[in-house]
Amino acid sequence: MVNTPPPEKHLDEQHHQPQSSIASIDFYTPLRLSIDGTPRAAATGPSPTNQPIIPEGPIPLPPSSRSPPPPFPEAHHAITISNNGSFLGSHNHPSPPPLRPPPGGGGGKKGGGGDNGINVIDDCAVEEIHEVCHPPHVSLWDKLRGRLNEIFFPEDPFHVFRKRNQSPATKFVEAVQYVFPIIGWLRTYDFDVFRSDLIAGLTIASLAIPQGISYAKLANLPPIIGLYSSFVPPMIYAVLGSSRHLGIGPVSVASLIIGSELSQSVSPDTQTELYVSLAFTTTLFAGLLQTGLGIFRLGFIIDFLSKATLTGFMAGAAVIVILQQLKGLFGITHFTKQMQIIPVLKSVIHEEKEWTWQTVVICLSFLALLLVARQVSAKKPKLFWVSALAPLTSVIISTLVVFILRSKLQKVATIGKLPEGVNPSSLHKLYFHGPYLSVAIKTGILAGVLSLTEGIAVGRTCASMNNYQIDGNKEMIAIGAMNVCGCLCSCYVVSGGFARSAVNYNAGAKTAFSNVVMALAILITLLFLMPLFYYTPNAVLAAIITSAVIGFIDVKAAYNLWKLDKLDFLISMCSFFGVLFISVPIGLAIAVGISLLKIILNVSRPFTSELGNIPGTRIYRNLSCYNNARRVPAFLILTIESPIYFANSMYLQERIIRWIREEEQRIQETGDAILKCVILDITGTKWVVLWIFVAVTNIDSSGIEMLYQLKRTMDRSLLHLVLVNPVAIVMERLQNSKFLATFDARGLYLTIGEAVSDVSSSWRN
């Protein structure tokens, strides 16, 4: 191959604009190999006569060549780039025009004359090229400590101890207050706050009494255990909890899990003592799990239960709970112990002879009353007390009706006699030996995780609405501690419920003392009011449960998932139908498994896109999203929006090569300038208004090896690889691996605009 010397440099007269500062850069089409190794020369204009003739036979290339060979003078192409690196236009010349030196000769400002190969109109300097700085040296211990702090202490809970001029006594008080948040709000407690907490506590007590009895029935436990669980745990949470509005007590999800899982192994009717012992043991393991997650700062584990998973799971669980209330609705005595929709419906139809119309009337009447009260409070938040008092009102009215008409309503099942007095000790009832221990452990883990997720989600929602923050790990310790203590006092799994917390918030609670007021109201009920519940019909309890969980069927949230992310919608539906037709744990496991698969797909198949310049600016954006973005001739600008790990390194290498191959094919079809440079935008973070798009935030050894192979492939094809603005950790690893040593002076830039401007100018030298 004969090397022809390049023609003299010239100024492109066709793009002379006196009012703007632009630089004209000329380059010529080299003979080179395409990315797939076949000889190819890109077209330089619309006419096929402008294409150079490719000689037959092998084409010798220097093995270490990193720059194009001397170009052919016949194929002359020019592009125009402004001084800030934005692309302004391109054009073709059949032959090089004569050289016209810029004013002032070759000297002048940086980038302004012939010395650097850029002819600048109006003697305006090209933008200064900034150096990409290497990160400062950090010891291995400091790196490990910083990383562990970010993993386990992202909220920096110890910042209060780093204040200046703190005495040891002050630090001690801060430490005690961190462990016992009650000390913090007690120091500023006054009568106005007490009045608000008193009203809120009495309001949620009116809801907690019927809900406690109802949820205990849902868990197949004696109703009194529901009231026990609303007395001791709220007192403990008031001391350890950091949320001001969380209403503590039994929750529907945990009750459903305990009722469904334990009843498959032990009958709550014929083996009542064993069943209750397993429920207390389940509560112990749930509390130990929750406390352990909080102490070891492992709260991020529950984040794997995504919103899509919980939306489908809660809806499926709500349907299961409602189906279970068909027993109370129809007054059926012999009801299936299974939870799935098909066995339940078969049981309802098969036991048609046990239906009682009086029970149906009572249940539907009070269900309608509760739903109407719910709608009134939803439309007018100031009337929150309507829905809060509706359950207790229903219990009182239904009890009076059954008591007055007891001679005519003998077929209506009632709660019966409840024992009076405070919680008895249940330490001797804990089950640690026997064939059912594994059932208690499994149920405790499942109930503990889900009740913990519900409690923290509700606590964070209330905190965000009142402009304060809660420590998720501290909440785990508080919820776990009250469950561990509760299992010793005849309580089962409790947490912060949606309905109870919403009522507490709307009632104007200021501190966790509202839970203490509620617990004292429950205590009075346990001591003096138990005989009043003798004639309370089970049908009204079924109505209370149904009205409480019907809000978990969130059709609007499912529709939003469909609009936003079809895969999230699929996850939600898998969770919903899995719970409905298979079982609660399997349905949840399916949803979590698909969520993990989604994470793996996002990591192993990251998003890549081609960027173009928005004319007149230094902004480069996705060509498929911005119609006004324009390709820069001779450049292929790609962005990778993911860390480069072993799981995606090979895919990224293949995908980048495919981008190059597709760009070369496009050039052949359109006649654009030949591809000479590939820019990889690996910026750590892009800020666009208020949205953050995370890109390459990390790289491992497999990712670095991929870059080595990619650069060797591009060197063989005479393509110039450029990296733009790597973050500190990526820059450090590239430097330590000696990968940056394979680049020349024009291989690493701070911005895409600087890379386009500087690399283009180098083609004139």
Description of the molecule:
Helix content is 49%, strand content 9%. It has 25 helices and 16 strands. By secondary structure, it is of the alpha+beta class. The strands form 5 sheets. Strands 10-9-11-12-15-16 form a 6-stranded mixed sheet. Strand 4 and strand 5 form a beta hairpin. The protein starts with 21 loop residues before the first strand and ends with a helix.
Explain briefly what this protein structure is:
This protein has 765 residues and is α+β, with helices and mostly antiparallel strands. It is built from 25 helices and 16 strands. 43% of the residues are buried.
Per-chain topology:
Layout (H helix, E strand, L loop, with lengths): L21 E7 L3 E2 L5 E2 L35 E7 L4 E7 L25 E2 L19 H13 L15 H12 L2 H5 L4 H28 L4 H6 L3 H9 L7 E2 L2 H11 L9 H24 L11 H18 L1 H5 L10 H10 L6 H23 L4 H21 L32 H29 L6 H16 L7 E2 L1 H9 L6 H17 L8 H12 L5 H10 L1 H16 L2 H21 L3 E6 L6 E3 L12 E6 L8 H22 L6 E5 L3 E4 L2 E4 L6 H16 L3 E5 L3 H9 L11 E2 L2 H11 L3
Parallel strand pairs: 11-12, 12-15, 15-16
Antiparallel strand pairs: 1-4, 1-6, 2-3, 4-5, 7-8, 9-10, 9-11, 13-14
Helix pairs in contact: 4-13, 4-16, 4-17, 4-18, 6-15, 6-17, 7-14, 8-14, 8-15, 9-18, 9-20, 9-21, 12-13, 12-18, 14-15, 14-16, 19-20, 20-21, 22-23
Pfam families: STAS, Sulfate_transp
Keywords: Membrane, Transmembrane, Transmembrane helix
InterPro entries: SLC26A/SulP_dom (IPR011547), SLC26A/SulP_fam (IPR001902), STAS_dom (IPR002645), STAS_dom_sf (IPR036513)
